[in-house]
Amino acid sequence: MPDSLFGDATHRICGVAAASTARQMQLLVLQALRLTRTVELRLDWLRNDQQREKLLHWLKSARLRKAVLLATCRRRIGGGEFSGDAGAELFWLMKAREAGCQWCDLEIETLRELPGETVRGYAVPEKVLLSIHDFRRTPRLTKKVNVAPSGGVDGVKVAAMARSIGDSVRLLKWARKSRQAVAIPMGEIGMPARILALREGSALAYAPVAAATAPGQVHLREVKELYRAHRLTHKTQVYGVIGNPVAHSLSPLLHNTGYISTGKDAVFLPFLVERLEDFLKAVPDFGVKGFSVTLPHKEAVFRRLDACEPVAAKIGAVNTVTVRRDGSLHGSNTDYLGVLRALEKKMKLPGSRVLIFGAGGSARAAAFALAKASAHVFVCARRENAARSLARAVEGEAVPKAALRKSKFDAILNATPVGMHPQVGVSPLAAGELNCSLVMDLIYRPMQTKLLQMAADRGIKTLSGVEMFLAQGIAQWEHWMGRRAPEAAMRKAVLTALKGTERSHH
């Protein structure tokens, strides 16, 4: 679909206004217009005909001159909220044209019910976008979907559930080949492809102004200001974080803030990865230059690397992968730098006694980091064999949990997920086991875990996992960008977001 249909790329981000009352819808439309010129009005979300009448009456008098308005009154058969029949849907679309809407969205189910399968002859808005929804899977899209002119349709939208990263790649390839196409991969797995859709030739990318109207949607402000979807081209460097779950990750906020502050043509996306194989296959299609690795893939990705820095090889886990020009994967670990940088600000490490609670990937990174800084490392874990083997690897000492009440340390480090959101009320250690001057928790959600609260109550200094998260992420950013990170801006963005979510949970 040529740019001229929706103006330049900035206006190809379509804000979706969906609410149950006309008053709420008005506010959403005005909010959307501050960020884009193109707005979809979900008439089917309004709770009754009276509210639809009210909204269109307001629209007529508001005369939003520069706005490109797209009316949708999707029936339940097409995945919408409207309980009326095809005739009732067309009635509201005709009313929308009278109120000033230049476009309408007509689902394929309705088009098939019309005489001659054409919308010609109905006084609906001048431009028609035909929509095909599949909320279960991504259908085969072998043919170019160029609708017959007789259907009276100007463009085709395919919104399909991405069950795998491969599904969203197929949908984007279809958009690239078809003129007049809008491609929308749905679901959390499809989210990165939604952000890259405009770059691949999709005529629109949809983003809700408030309530999400389809799975995997990203808020309009984020699409425009954090991911800058309208600015991405094939020259843009793509980075991301892979994990399962990944929606809670603040890595996209951290990295994208850094790109925005330094004017870098790069974007950082969250990839929900169920099968590592799937993601690695899609790396060339998305043009991924590097990715951050979180649970549960840290050890699996290690086996797929072509090369690895020595310290990461020792740890046996990587959190940073760089895709080289020839497509080979090079692994490194910034977790250990994160632990060091965070702790060094609070204490002298050489000669200190530090207990690590846990023996997984993060515990390994912390143990090697501390040993490298000449600290005496002690390891305690539920799996005593794992604790002994990690202690051996760093020439440290394994400590049974029963001995903690009688042992003294300079610092205790929690490297287990116990106490992480949503299980916020639990602590991996009891108050009587905290005999030290400093307690650090590697968890950063919540910032103040139950463990840190208990330590603070006993007058012990505390260090939140957010410090390690920031330090490892900033080290990663610098590793990929080859320059100093705008640390203050990145730190501020992450702390503001964390404080905001904690306020909303209380």
Could you please describe the fold and organization of this structure?
By secondary structure, this protein is of the alpha/beta class. The protein folds into 3 domains: 227 residues, TIM Barrel, CATH 3.20.20; 124 residues, Leucine Dehydrogenase, chain A, domain 1 (Rossmann fold), CATH 3.40.50; 128 residues, Rossmann fold (3-Layer(aba) Sandwich), CATH 3.40.50. 36% of the residues lie in helices and 19% in strands. The chain has 17 helices and 20 strands. The mean pLDDT is 93.
Provide a compact summary of the structure.
This protein is an alpha/beta fold and 506 residues long. Helix content is 36%, strand content 19%. The strands form 3 sheets. An 8-stranded parallel sheet has the order 7-6-5-4-3-2-1-8.
Task: Identify the notable features of this structure and list them briefly.
alpha/beta, TIM Barrel, Rossmann fold, 3 domains, eight-stranded parallel beta sheet, 36% helix
Strand order of the largest sheet: 7-6-5-4-3-2-1-8
**Termini, distance in Å?**
47 Å
Radius of gyration: 27 Å
**Segments where pLDDT lies below 50 for 5+ residues?**
none
- What is the CATH homology-level superfamily of the largest domain? Aldolase class I
Strand fraction: 15-25%
The CATH top-level class label of the largest domain: Alpha Beta
CATH fold assignment of the largest domain: TIM Barrel
CATH architecture of the largest domain: Alpha-Beta Barrel
Number of strands: 20
| Class by alpha and beta content | alpha/beta
Average pLDDT across residues? Answer: 93
Number of helices: 17
**How many individual domains?**
3
What shape does the CA trace take? elongated
The major pleated sheet works out as: 8 strands, parallel
- Approximately how much helix is present in the residues? 25-40%
